[in-house]
Write a structure and sequence with these properties.
Length: 143
């Protein structure tokens, strides 16, 4: 009789992955980040156990949107009040908050459950090439 293997939470043994978003398509970048957060690149992947790594994304303002998405794609935010719906094009979001563009794309790639809300706390997105996580010794990810 074989026993079912259930992976343990790696805890402090999580590695830090450094991703450069320069000229990478937004969707493909978000899929790679989401898979790393969930731990799908490991042989011990289990959808119910958090086995993923930390991800640091630099150069967020240089991410690429293909086609006519810069002008046609819309982001919206709702305050909760009547008439409180704000709409922004992808072009204005990239100019003002390029980190939110990547965070929303990664959020869209994750399942909507308690585990994914915990996973989103392990993504750090920065506008330029500088980041304050040198002490964690991040490894350059190959995606």
């Amino acid at each position: 009789m074989t026993k079912t293997f259930v992976p343990k939470d790696p805890g402090t043994a999580r590695s830090w992955q450094l991703v450069d978003a320069t000229d990478k398509p937004l969707g493909r970048l978000a899929v790679s980040i989401a898979n790393t957060l969930r731990g799908k690149n490991r042989p011990t992947f289990d959808p119910s156990v958090d086995t993923g790594d930390f991800v640091i994304v630099v150069n967020a303002e240089k991410v690429r949107l293909t086609g006519r998405k810069l002008d046609q794609k819309e982001y919206q935010r709702y305050s909760g009040y009547r008439g409180g719906l704000k709409r922004f094009s992808a072009r204005t979001m990239l100019e003002q908050h390029p980190d939110r563009v990547i965070l929303e794309a990664v959020w869209g790639m994750l399942p909507k459950n308690t585990l994914s809300r915990k996973l989103m706390t392990r993504v750090r997105v920065y506008r330029g090439a500088e980041h304050p996580h040198a002490a964690q010794m991040p490894v350059a990810a190959a995606f």
